[in-house]
Amino acid sequence: MIVPPNGYAAVIGHPENPVQWLSYLYTKMPARHSPVLQYGAYYEGNQQKLAFSQAKYRSAFHAVFEEWRDNFCGMIVDSSNERMNVDSFRFPDYSQSAKDVREIWQRSSMDAFSSSVHLDAMIHGSAYVIVWADHQGQPLITPYSAEQLVVQYKTGSLTEIEAAALFLIDPWGRQMATLWTEKYVYDIPPGVNDWEDGKLTRNPLRRVPVVPFHNRTRLGKPSSSDLRDIVPIQDAINKTVTDALTASEYAAFPQRWVTGLEIKEDSNGRPVEPFDSAVDKILQAEDPTAKFGSFAAADLKNYVTLVSMLVQHMASISRLPLHYFLVNGGSSPSGESLISAEAGLVAKVRERMLHFGESWERVIRLCFAVLGDARQNAYTMETVWKDPEYRTEAQHIDSLLKLKQLNVPEEQLWSDAGYSPAAISSFREMRREDARAAAEVQRLGPQPEKISGVGATPQEAKAARMAYKIPQGNSGNANRKIHEAK
Questions:
Q1: How far, in Å, CA of 474 to CA of 445, rounded?
Q2: What pTM value is reported for the model?
Q3: Beta-carbon neighbour count of residue 146 at 10 Å?
Q4: How far apart are CA 170 and CA 187, in angstroms?
Q5: Distance of alpha carbon 163 from alpha carbon 11, whole angstroms
Q6: Residue 150's Cα: distance from chain center in Å?
Q7: Which of 40, 73, 81 minimizes the C-alpha distance to 353?
Q8: Which of 62-76, 213-227, 298-312 has the lowest mean pLDDT?
Q9: Distances, alpha carbon 432 to alpha carbons 285, 305, 424, 426, 438, in Å
């Protein structure tokens, strides 16, 4: 956790210099008990174990259930994130742009890190991407967590950022910070304790190079995590399962009782257990008035019923199909029932794609701004996502063949089939190679004789046609003789 140097108090009013901006933005960083950090712990399954047990049960079962976790939070976020994959970017007004964008994308390893951005945004409510030039002057895309970076929007704007600050701790435990505004960049090198000793340089982009990825954005409200409404239900499930585990230890086995026996005590006056009970031992007493019996074992089905109800509530709120939770006994629906069951989840993913796609377009425009390219103003650009709906290969290909009947270009059909831009580029080169090979075979192969032409006599034309005619079997030979006789 970043700790500001002593003496830097919260700024009241609009910041006027870099130190005031750093002090102000630091107050917006998540605190130790912030929900941002709590949601991350729940996603990882690190919520407090046996939190609702009585003290004696916690001390008795801590070693037994220390690694126990029944965590649905990770599955709820992962089920959406695994369906969100950026495929490419479409530029209607600029040709030959897809290759340039793909090179920038691959150089920054965003094939992998883009998924991490979506994941952090859905867990914490926000994630951030910084676009800056590397040592070769090429645009570099770097993602950061909401635990490290904060932004301040311009008054009255939902998209224009006035300032952003990155607070980091390097591998040697030294604090460092960077502030961006439209006019300047202010760096606090590692190990520098006074924020006044930072380095001020001009911002060549003349814009803040930070793009936020906000999850579940509301007008005038902060973004929120997908786990905000899930955490209370997860706590209830943890409590119920904890009770069931405790009951399974103390009450799931039938307890025996005996009456009519004299209670013996030890030298300290404590009762002595009369029997050493075990499965292979018999209880007996000489006193004819002694009676033996057993209590009924506790029924744990009530706990199962309660957990099932809580899981159904969780599925309804998260829009996750019940077969993800194995509520239906572990069997998954098939065919149209599967598509219907996952309709809510797919709609949820498409809504996230709408907002995240807009952010990725701003990232690409910033990349072209680093290069000084006119495409930094390509506002008609679109983010192309892979299909979030799971279908069988036969269903998918059949739908593509029907789209081909509508004269949809083959390149678009390849993209819809799930092929990457690199694969599609390879397909184009393969088709050119096939065309060149076919032309070469046609040139080197036997050529058909001339059937008719200028200067050919009628007899020569007839002989050429007969020689070029494809044999048609015995029936064809007989018919040809009849016509030749005529």
A1: 29
A2: 0.75
A3: 27
A4: 14
A5: 14
A6: 22
A7: 81
A8: 62-76
A9: 97, 63, 13, 10, 10
